[in-house]
Each structure stands twice: as structure tokens, then as C-alpha cells.
């Protein structure tokens, strides 16, 4: 029985049970009419409450009210929006009549006019609730903390439905029908595949905004789950924050407008349905629906306290008409309570996500989230340093017993929940399900674990490539896991090309000095084939593009031997500092040469070099949550605040054979923000300078893209190594409308396509000194391949397109606006317009 049903039952019992109560003790009845003192007209939906008590009533459409109580106060309070609150004395008699006349408040005249125009009185209530939301928003407190219990359940369902024309179920449905199952609320079988329970301490503070979760205990059981460490962090309170006092509720990577947020009147239509008792408080029951059914918005009911004009309960849904992938229905129920301090706080939240069937004969899935907050303490924030790291696991977080969970669960589990916890173990041990779980892990992680040796093989993405230099390239990579050591992380690879018949190799040793704060030291040695303009520095974390760059024709290839030592430490929430020293060589396989600097005694033209670099990188991501998976840290992303990166590189001449002294400073910022119903924008800005004279492979090269695939951080109509710069600035922008237009077109609505626009700009130049370093011919008289640079006109490309095609595909139409007739030094003509595709799995 839900909290709302229990509240209605209690309220009904109070109304129909008076004859029995009268026999037991004295009851009091106060009745009357609430009217406007100036006009004498009845005031509808006015609140009448006994002073100092929780009993109350609400006037009807004509202003009449009846208040019944077993305990009498010395007076009643009468209040209504647009009127001054008044108190009236009561008498110690069983039945009395109190007519209340209220005087209009001058400051409310405008609201009365809007009410008359808007029609439904719900708008007056919502307008006042929105006006007071900062007063009740937990995010506005100086700080708060609570004990959190979170339970998550995952089921496979809808596999036993009767098919048309009595056809037999498909092979997957027949298999699921043979697995252990429970009976869901609709009387149909459901196979539990995941259940987790997490108990943690959650802390938050304002100014500066910081959050921290300390996971005390966690138990995770599910298909494909071997180590619950990462899962325990993902299923805790940090990812179950649903604050309806924010402008939007962030769920499934979507910003869903809140019914009490800034867009409440733009997005929703409201209707005042009734006044009911919720947690001993008289509340307005208000129904809400999106003004446009296809908009990403809630449908449901909110209950607002008549005295405080604050949220008391929320019961809302998002159905399949909204543009959310894989979701048939999303349902949120949330209860708010008033603490002893007077602060309102959400104490219980339930979220259900019922997925749609990806194909007519395929099963569906049901995911349930249940969270509670207890022992809430407000306005006692901790020191800023306390909140780092944002998520941490207690040393004994896996050591639990049944009595512990019984003591921290808010309520005993229902029989079906007990049955699900027992059945999920049986399901995960079915041979074919175990195989499916291993395939899922391999696809997500890219590594195949060999448990007996405590090593992982992979990543499989890099195992094979084919290009004009190496021919068929085969690669074998290994890394240790926590079974080997919880301090040491060893990894390495060996690659071989059938055409160049050369072995390439690499190895890394990393040692975790501390987990609190995260501190590591490491060393790496590699020898491999590289290409100018496509390197780890400008590719970033795009592993798919890095693997693709090994295929096809590799222009301007070179061998590089690299030695790197580094130290990385988290200095505070969001601050990460890395200091490294790198020594690397450049051994070209194409005509290349450079003129040595004037101060060099040997002025002969050279074709290879060695550099020694001292690197300092500072990264600030205040909104980012870092997760720890075994010995590796993973970013869960940032939602509201930008990420800043500042990198300084110092080339040191004659240190470890370094040939040059030079400086490089580069800055980058990434951010995304919501633009209301118009969708979400993503942008990045960058700038840098190299105020030194060095060979062009050491200058900045914007990442081009000659593939048919769209790459987010690349200039998609720029060729590889088309331009270089020693002074540069970049801007990349994308805005996704989230189906704002297509959702309104009847023929396209069912496709759930989403429209977007993009724009990318690159500005840069090369100094005359760096231009002069490239001679016309090398020492053997061969023509040296030079480079191209921009003039005063920036490079610009813009695009538009559709994503969410079949829920996974994206198509970009891109126009190159400048340098359309440019032919790079490699002789590759440019493409002024192209259509590129990519795959994006998103909700």
C-alpha cells in the first residue's frame, strides 16, 4: 500500500468513524464560511487550521467549511492566497460557528488577476509554491547529511505474453520461460537478473558545492557481475538524487522539467483536483499534464501543503510518447517530510523504469530503484577537504550478515522481494546465462579475464589492423588485475607487422601510493609506428578512432621510442595534478628534414631528433564524480559545471639527449548546459602557444578526419595534417534539440528522431622562424615534405543532422565553409561537403 493510499485510508477513517469516536470521547465541530470582507463573496479553497495543531480543513467553492477535531485550540487560523491571514478565537463547546472575513492583500492583486485569467485555482497554488521554492529547496541549505539505504532490482519480463494466432514463442522467450522466476504485480512471470542493496552516509554542502558518499555496506548479485566494487558506487545515493525543486530532474541523461521549476507554466497544464490529508498535513492535490503530449515532461500528481505551500508528495510518469529510448514508462514517487528544524526534505523515493520491447518477439525489462533518507542533519556542513573523494568504499563494505541488513532496511522485504533475492543466484548460474554475462562484460570492458593467472587479455579493439606500412598488424595485450595486486598495475603489449616484419612493444608499471587522496606513480616504455598529426595527445580518449587510424594508408609515418615517468595526485575535489618527464625520438619513414638552430655547432641538415620534456597538467572538474574500478579510476562525467585543463610543456635541451629547448602552453574548457525545452548545448574552447623554434612535428596539429565516420573532437572535413600552428584557438559547438521539431510531425513522431546542429572553428598561425626550419631538400637531395598553415581566415565547418535513428545511428551533413579549394602538401584534395555516420547509444 502506497503512502498516498494509506493517507486516504486514514483520512476516510477519520471522516466515517465519528459515531464510534463520540462514544469514547468528546469531539468538536467548527463550521462557517470564509468570505471577502469587501465584496462578501465566498473564498474557495481557503485553509482553516487549529493554531498549534495539525488538524485543518479547506473551504468549498462557496467558502463553506467544516472542521472536526478531538482536541481544541484557543483559536483557528484562516489563510488564502491574495488575502491577509487572520486568527479567530474558539469557545470550549462541542459545536460552534465561526464566519471569517478576509481582507485582500495589496501585494496579491496581480496574482488574483492571473488566477481569473488562467481559470483553474491550481495556478495560484503553483505560483506561490514556485515563489517559495528556495525556502524549501535542500540545495539551498548550507549543508546536510543523512543515512541512505538504496535497493535496485532488475527483471526480464514480457516474455510469456500470448502471441497472435497462438504462435509459439521465440527461442529466447522459450529459454526465459524455463528459468526460475517470480510473479510480478500483473501476475506474469519475471526473471530477476540483478539485485543490489547499499547502505551509505551521504554528505552535501553549499558554497562551495560539494557532495560525498561513504559506502558502508553493499551486496550485489547479478548476471555478469563478478566484482561489486564499481556497481556498489553506481547504485549508491550519489546517482539517486531527484530534487524536484531544481528547474529540471536529471534522469537517464535527460533533463525533465520539474512541475515546480522555472518552466512550470510554459511546459505544464495544471488542475486542482481535491484537498487530502498527506502525512497529517492538509494538501492540495494537483494533476499535471504536458501542454504537448510528445514533450519530454511529466504526467501525474503533486501534493502541496496548504499551509507551507511546499511539496509533500510527488507521483509522476513519463510515457512512451516522450522521446526516451528503450523506455515504455518511467514512474517516480517521492515523499517529503518536515524535520524538527522546519526544513522540508525528501525521505523516500521510488523509481520504476519499464523498458519497451526492442523487437516484437523480444522480452522487455523492468528496473526499480528505492531510496530512503534517515537521521537527517541540516546546516552543519563539513570542512571542504572532507568531501574528497566524492565516493569512497569502506574497507569492509562487502562484509555483511543478514542481521545487519535487517537492521538498516526501512521495512521488511515483501515475499516477492525475498523470492527474487533467492532466485537471482539460480538464474546467474545457468550455463547459457553465464556465457551471456561474459559476452556482455567483454563488450563493455574490452578485456577477457583469465582468473587463474590474475590477468586480463585485451583490449580486443586493438588486436588487428591493416595498413600500407605494416601489412597485417597483430597485437596481444595483457594487464594484471586486483587478484594480482591491489597496489601494482602492470600492463604491456607486443605487436608485429607482416609487411615491415618489425616488432613493436610497450609496457607500463603503475603503483598506487594512496587511494585517499588518489595518488599514483608510473613509468612507461614503448616502441611503435606512429603518424604525424594523429597522436594520443590530440585523439584523447577516443579509443575507437585510435584503432581506426591504424588502418589504410598511413601518410608521414615514423617510429617513436618513448620513455615516460609520471606522478598524479588528486589535490582536492575536482583538482588533479600530473607531473611527468618524457623522452622520445622521431625516426621518419618519409622525406623529412630540418635546419638546426643557429647556436648548434653542427649546422648540417638532419632528419631525426630526440626531445626531453617536462610536463605539468592541471585539471579542474568540480562537478565530476570519479569511480574506482579495481585499480583504475573512471569518470562518471560532469553535468552542470565545466571541466578545465591547463597543460605546460618544457623541452629541455641536452637533458637525456634532448635536441631542443622550447615551451608550450595549452588550455581547454568543456561544458554543456540545458536551454529549457530547446534542448542541450555542448561546447569546448581551446587556445595555446608555442613561442619557440622547433621542427613542425612538435607544433600543434588539429585533429582531422578522413574516415566516413563522425568524430566528436575532430574537424570532420579537415584532412590529417592539413594545417599546423604554433599559436591557435579552437571552438567546437553542438546543440541537440532532442526531437523538438520531429516530435510535432505526425509522420515522424513514432521514429523518435532527434535533430541537431554543429559548428567548429580553428584559428592559427605559424611564425616565420618555424617556417624557415624546413629546408627544400634533405641531406640526400630529396624534396622535403613541408606543411600548410592558415592565413587570417579561420577554418570553419558547420553541420546539421539526425541522431537516434533506430535508436543507435547518427547521420551528420557537414559543410566546409573556408579553404574549400585547398590542396594539402600530401596532395589530398579537400571535401567541401560530406555525410558521415556514427553510432551513439543513448536514452
UniProtKB/TrEMBL annotation:
Hydrolase found in the keyword field: yes
Record's keyword terms, sorted: Carboxypeptidase, Hydrolase, Protease
Matches recorded under SUPFAM superfamilies: Carboxypeptidase regulatory domain-like
GO function terms (MF aspect): carboxypeptidase activity
Gene3D superfamilies: Carboxypeptidase-like, regulatory domain (2.60.40.1120)
Pfam family, one: DUF5686
InterPro entries: CarboxyPept-like_regulatory (IPR008969), DUF5686 (IPR043741)
Domain of life per record: Bacteria
Protein name: Carboxypeptidase-like regulatory domain-containing protein
Amino acid at each position: 500500500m502506497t503512502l498516498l493510499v494509506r493517507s486516504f485510508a486514514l483520512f476516510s477513517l477519520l471522516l466515517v468513524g465519528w459515531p464510534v469516536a463520540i462514544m469514547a470521547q468528546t469531539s468538536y465541530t467548527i463550521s462557517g464560511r470564509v468570505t471577502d470582507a469587501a465584496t462578501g463573496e465566498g473564498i474557495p479553497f481557503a485553509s482553516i487550521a487549529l493554531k498549534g495543531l495539525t488538524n485543518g480543513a479547506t473551504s468549498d467553492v462557496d467558502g463553506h467549511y467544516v472542521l472536526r477535531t478531538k482536541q481544541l485550540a484557543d483559536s483557528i487560523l484562516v489563510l488564502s492566497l491574495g488575502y491577509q491571514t487572520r486568527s479567530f478565537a474558539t469557545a470550549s463547546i462541542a459545536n460552534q460557528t465561526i464566519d471569517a472575513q478576509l481582507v485582500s492583500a495589496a501585494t496579491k492583486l496581480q496574482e488574483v488577476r492571473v488566477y481569473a485569467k488562467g481559470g483553474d485555482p491550481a495556478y495560484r497554488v503553483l505560483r506561490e509554491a514556485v515563489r517559495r521554492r528556495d525556502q524549501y529547496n535542500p540545495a539551498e541549505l548550507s549543508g546536510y547529511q543523512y543515512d541512505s539505504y538504496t535497493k535496485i532490482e532488475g527483471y526480464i519480463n514480457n516474455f510469456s505474453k500470448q502471441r497472435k494466432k497462438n504462435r509459439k514463442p521465440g527461442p529466447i522467450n522459450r529459454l526465459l520461460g524455463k528459468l526460475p522466476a517470480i510473479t510480478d504485480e500483473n501476475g506474469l512471470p519475471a526473471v530477476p537478473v540483478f539485485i543490489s542493496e547499499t547502505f551509505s552516509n551521504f554528505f552535501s554542502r553549499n558554497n562551495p558545492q560539494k557532495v560525498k558518499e561513504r559506502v558502508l555496506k553493499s551486496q550485489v548479485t547479478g548476471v555478469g557481475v563478478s566484482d561489486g566494487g564499481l556497481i556498489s558506487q553506481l547504485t549508491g545515493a550519489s546517482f539517486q538524487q531527484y530534487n524536484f525543486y531544481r528547474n529540471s530532474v536529471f534522469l537517464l541523461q535527460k533533463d525533465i522539467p520539474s512541475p515546480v521549476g522555472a518552466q512550470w507554466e510554459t511546459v505544464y497544464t495544471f488542475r486542482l483536483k481535491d484537498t487530502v490529508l498527506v502525512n497529517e498535513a492538509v494538501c492540495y492535490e494537483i494533476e499535471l499534464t504536458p501542454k504537448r503530449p510528445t514533450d519530454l515532461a511529466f504526467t501525474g500528481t503533486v501534493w502541496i501543503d496548504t499551509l507551507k505551500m511546499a511539496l509533500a508528495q510527488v507521483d509522476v510518469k513519463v510515457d512512451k510518447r516522450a522521446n526516451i529510448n528503450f523506455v515504455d514508462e518511467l514512474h517516480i514517487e517521492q515523499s517529503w517530510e518536515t524535520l524538527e528544524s522546519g526544513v522540508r526534505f525528501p525521505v523516500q523515493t521510488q523509481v520504476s523504469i519499464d523498458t519497451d520491447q526492442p523487437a516484437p518477439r523480444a522480452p522487455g525489462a523492468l528496473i526499480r530503484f528505492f531510496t530512503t533518507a534517515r537521521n537527517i542533519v541540516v546546516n552543519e556542513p563539513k570542512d571542504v577537504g572532507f568531501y574528497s573523494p566524492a565516493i569512497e568504499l569502506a574497507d569492509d563494505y562487502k562484509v555483511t550478515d543478514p542481521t545487519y541488513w535487517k537492521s538498516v532496511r526501512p521495512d521488511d522485504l515483501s515475499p516477492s522481494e525475498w523470492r527474487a533475492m533467492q532466485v537471482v543466484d539460480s538464474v546467474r548460474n545457468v550455463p547459457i546465462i553465464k556465457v551471456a554475462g561474459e559476452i556482455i562484460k567483454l563488450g563493455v570492458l574490452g578485456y577477457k579475464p583469465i582468473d587463474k593467472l590474475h590477468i586480463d587479455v585485451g583490449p580486443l579493439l586493438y588486436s588487428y589492423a591493416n595498413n600500407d606500412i605494416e601489412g597485417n598488424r597483430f597485437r596481444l595485450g595483457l594487464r594484471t588485475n586486483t587478484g594480482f595486486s591491489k597496489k601494482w598495475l602492470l600492463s604491456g603489449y607486443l605487436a608485429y607487422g607482416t609487411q615491415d616484419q618489425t616488432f613493436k612493444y610497450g609496457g607500463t608499471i603503475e603503483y598506487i601510493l594512496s587511494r585517499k587522496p588518489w595518488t599514483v606513480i608510473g613509468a612507461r616504455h614503448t616502441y611503435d609506428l606512429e603518424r604525424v598529426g594523429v597522436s594520443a595527445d590530440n585523439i584523447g580518449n577516443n579509443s575507437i578512432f585510435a584503432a581506426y587510424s591504424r588502418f589504410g594508408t598511413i601518410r608521414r609515418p615514423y617510429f617513436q621510442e618513448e620513455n615516460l615517468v609520471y606522478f598524479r595526485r588528486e589535490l582536492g575535489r575536482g583538482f588533479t595534478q600530473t607531473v611527468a618527464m618524457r623522452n622520445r625520438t622521431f625516426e621518419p619513414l618519409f622525406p623529412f628534414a630540418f635546419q638546426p638552430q643557429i647556436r648548434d655547432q653542427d649546422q648540417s641538415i638532419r632528419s631525426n631528433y630526440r626531445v626531453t620534456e617536462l610536463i605539468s597538467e592541471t585539471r579542474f572538474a568540480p562537478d565530476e564524480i570519479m569511480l574506482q574500478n579495481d585499480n583504475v579510476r573512471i569518470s562518471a562525467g560532469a553535468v552542470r559545471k565545466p571541466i578545465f585543463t591547463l597543460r605546460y610543456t618544457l623541452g629541455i635541451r641536452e637533458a637525456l639527449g634532448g635536441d631542443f629547448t622550447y615551451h608550450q602552453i595549452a588550455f581547454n574548457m568543456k561544458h554543456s548546459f540545458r536551454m529549457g525545452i530547446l534542448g542541450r548545448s555542448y561546447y569546448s574552447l581551446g587556445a595555446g602557444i608555442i613561442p619557440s623554434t622547433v621542427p613542425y612535428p612538435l607544433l600543434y596539429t588539429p585533429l582531422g578526419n578522413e574516415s566516413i565516420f563522425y568524430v566528436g573532437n575532430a574537424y570532420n572535413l579537415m584532412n590529417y595534417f592539413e594545417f599546423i600552428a604554433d599559436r591557435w584557438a579552437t571552438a567546437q559547438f553542438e546543440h541537440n534539440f532532442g526531437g523538438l521539431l520531429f516530435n510535432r510531425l505526425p509522420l515522424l513522431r513514432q521514429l523518435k528522431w532527434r535533430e541537431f546542429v554543429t559548428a567548429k572553428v580553428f584559428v592559427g598561425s605559424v611564425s616565420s622562424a618555424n617556417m624557415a626550419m624546413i629546408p627544400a631538400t634533405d641531406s640526400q637531395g630529396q624534396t622535403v615534405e613541408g606543411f600548410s598553415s592558415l592565413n587570417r581566415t579561420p577554418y570553419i565547418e558547420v553541420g546539421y543532422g539526425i541522431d537516434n535513428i533506430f535508436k543507435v545511428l547518427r547521420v551528420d551533413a557537414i559543410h566546409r565553409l573556408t579553404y574549400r579549394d585547398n590542396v594539402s602538401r600530401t596532395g589530398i584534395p579537400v571535401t567541401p561537403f560530406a555525410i558521415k555516420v556514427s553510432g551513439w547509444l543513448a536514452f
